[in-house]
Amino acid sequence: MTNSPPKALKYLAAYPETLQQQAQRLLDSGRLASWLLDKYPQAHGLRTDGALYRHVEALRQEHMRQTPRLDRVLFDSKIHVVRHALGLHTMVSRVQGGRLKAQHEIRIGALFRDAPPPFLSMIVVHELAHLKERDHDRAFYRLCEHLEPDYHRLELDVRLYLTHLEAGGERLWAPAASP
Length: 179
Ligand SMILES: [Zn+2]
Prior knowledge:
This is DUF45 domain-containing protein. This protein has one domain: Zincin-like. It has helices at residues 17-28, 32-39, 49-63, 117-129, 138-147, 151-166; strands at 72-76, 87-96, 99-109. 41% of the residues lie in helices and 15% in strands. It has a three-stranded mixed β-sheet with strand order 1-3-2. Residues 85, 126, 130, 136 line the site of zinc ion.
């Protein structure tokens, strides 16, 4: 067996050792949550799939006109965050009026419904980039950075949040439960 990192740091496994140690210290000292909240005090306000669709489709039209119009964009509570990275982009074929029609859809992990605007931006950019680049290769990340210059920093911060949750921390931007 290899010397694997502690379970809570699995989201950071691809980062340098020194960064993982820093994250571990923040986590151990109980300061990771407040560090995240200081940096990202507010949640975005997109509550519905309809609002999410309009947001994502507007971005696509602005930056990626040559890609096909999206048929659906939704928050999906069934997305397993680790397995599918963070979201899911699919091209499904559906029978419509007796004809098979390709449908382009993007599913965003429901976790991102309660998240600050930059986190939503990171995951949306990631999934939009997949409309053109399938794999997580150099061309893919170049496109992500073109769409969101802070992409890499944001992906790291999203992963720090996932680390916080994995370690048993509470959701930081969840709205107060209604009575
Ligand atoms: Zn991906």
